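Pilot study result, target chain (387 residues):
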Amino acid sequence: MADLPGSPRILIVRSNPIAPDPRVEKIARALVQAGCAVDALGWDRTGRLPAEEQREGYRVFRLPIQAEYGRGMANLPNLLRWQWGLLGWLRRNHSRYAAIHACDFDTVLPAWWVSRRGRQKLVYDIFDFYADHLRATPGWIKKIIRRVDYFAIGQADALILVDDARREQVAGSRPRRVEIVYNSPEDERPAASAEPSPAGELRLAYVGLLQVERGLFEMLNVLKRHPEWSLDMAGFGGDEAALVEAAARMPNVRWHGRVDYAAAISLSQSADALFATYDPSIPNHRYSSPNKVFEAMMLGKPVVVAANTNMDRMIEQANCGLVVPYGDEDALEQALSRLACDPDLRRRLGECARQAYESTYSWAVMAARLRKLYADLLSGPDRSEQA
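Predicted structure:
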């Protein structure tokens, strides 16, 4: 483990309340284990969460700026309020930190502005490339955002991507250093696990962002035809109300609301299979490697994914799941039927999933990359010396 001398203090900035945010929490713990003092700053859009919270060795601060999810350009005033509030917080507190870890485009500009004056190291961690993530934004605005994002990438001391395939997505930028840190989970499998369902039955689980582009309505439609199958669903997002309303009419769907990470893993562990059927027409989905896929690998569960989303390549290489065309309910039904009717297939795919996690995608490997990155950055020259 690459320990960092002097207990440097690092700030992680994220535009959600970190309640939960598994990737932010994993990064914080990895840096704490390396000897860093870590704080995280998030955006509380409800205004109802604690302004400060102590976690496992690090603190979470929150800015209460009320806003909704999934409103596109209508949310621009709130996004600008968040940027202004974040800039003010950073200006007041930046001197406490040796580095700022900015997560996604909606935190990096205030972080860059403050870090270049305070000489903090700036690490830019792109979970989703912002210009390709926006759902209801005019194309000309996306082009401007892309150019500004490329500028921010070039200004950061290091760029972190969640998948090697995303290098293509940021082609045209000039990062000083690139590190690939997959969004894999820590190896924390619940001690107790439900017995596999008998042939013909199938327990599914989905915990994550609730958006129509993730194949959730298609899954509900298939489940309507199969009352012998069940789904545990949890999370939040722009299409939450419509999904919850649809699920409420189905006795084989259990809605759990927003849950913490431990509860999310427990729900996934109790399932026979997981799914991540994202729409490949969305650029970020074509480069996606979401934590649900790595959670399936860690838990030893087969996973169903959509074709042409990068996930299909990973799943086929590891032989740990099934691939279906996005939006094709018949193909989805056939894939789930294979899993339901063949418990031995589930077991074989699950064993391959676990092997892929241990050999390639474990968080232990990712945490070591993070610690080395920060050790290199914080022992190197600052920007004024580099100039």
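One observation from the pilot: The CA atoms of residues 29 and 56 lie 7 Å apart. A full batch analysis is planned for the follow-on phase.
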